[in-house]
Design a protein that fits this description.
alpha+beta; 4-stranded mixed sheet; 9 helices; 4 strands; globular; binds glutathione
């Protein structure tokens, strides 16, 4: 759908390694939808059944994490933010990063607040370690999950509320990398019944974003592997 090649090095996107409940994959699904790109194929890596630790998947991504994006030259991109920046560079329209460097820094900073400070603490392998190795109870594990979401969301709510550059979305009135990270993180929080009422700005932005077809179509419940 209309994205022009930005460089002679751009490769076709052959396959997205995906899982409906993976919020990192959800970020990439949103970015692909915003850019109007459909991978030729999608492979669903069942995280609850340990598909990410299967030898064939580890051969592609030794980290054993979803998502991964395979290109037609045989290369495999990993790490959702690196994948999204690749897409943004090679398929520049619509841009997911602002033109001005200081604004790009703001958008990246908020995206990293989510992707580096909130999400990794609540990843499946961390929760499994808490239960399986440290022997915490399910209640303690859920408490851990909620605690780190609240710490992260409190800071995010303040950062977004006090900054005049926050608009309909996290940065102005067009979706950016920040929004692509926010919606999946809020979906995760809701799945764990986190009380979102202390975060009215996050809720307002999330509601606006979910009205956009690119975000709505990427939702976990709309994926072919949804359970
Ligand atoms: N920083 C990575 C995180 C990827 C990641 O943690 N993916 C999760 C799903 S959201 C995963 O594959 N978890 C498997 C596990 O924890 O065993 C990214 O942004 O791509």
């Amino acid at each position: 759908m209309g994205s022009k090649p930005s460089s002679p090095f751009r490769r076709s996107i052959v396959k997205l390694y995906d899982y409906f409940r993976s919020s990192a994959a959800y970020r990439v699904r949103i970015a692909l939808n915003l850019k109007g790109i459909a991978p030729d194929e999608r492979t669903f890596v069942h995280l609850r059944m340990g598909g990410q630790r299967a030898q064939d998947y580890l051969a592609l991504n030794p980290q054993g994490l979803v998502p991964a994006l395979a290109l037609d030259d045989g290369s495999v991109l990993t790490q959702s933010l690196a994948i999204i920046e690749y897409l943004d560079e090679e398929y520049p329209s619509p841009p997911l990063l602002p033109a001005a460097a200081a604004e790009r820094a703001r958008v990246r900073a908020i995206a990293l607040q989510i992707a580096c400070e909130i999400h990794p603490l609540n990843n499946l392998r961390v929760l499994n370690y808490l239960i399986g190795t440290l022997g915490v109870t399910k209640e303690q594990k859920d408490g851990w999950y909620r605690y780190w979401i609240d710490v992260g969301f409190e800071a995010l709510e303040k950062a977004l509320t006090r900054d005049a550059r926050t608009g309909r979305y996290c940065h102005g009135d067009t979706p950016t990398l920040t929004d692509v990270c926010l919606v999946p993180q809020i979906a995760n929080a809701r799945r764990f019944d986190i009380d979102m009422s202390p975060y009215p700005t996050l809720m307002r932005i999330d509601a606006s974003l979910n009205e956009l077809p690119a975000f709505a179509a990427a939702a976990p419940a709309r994926q072919p592997d949804a359970e």
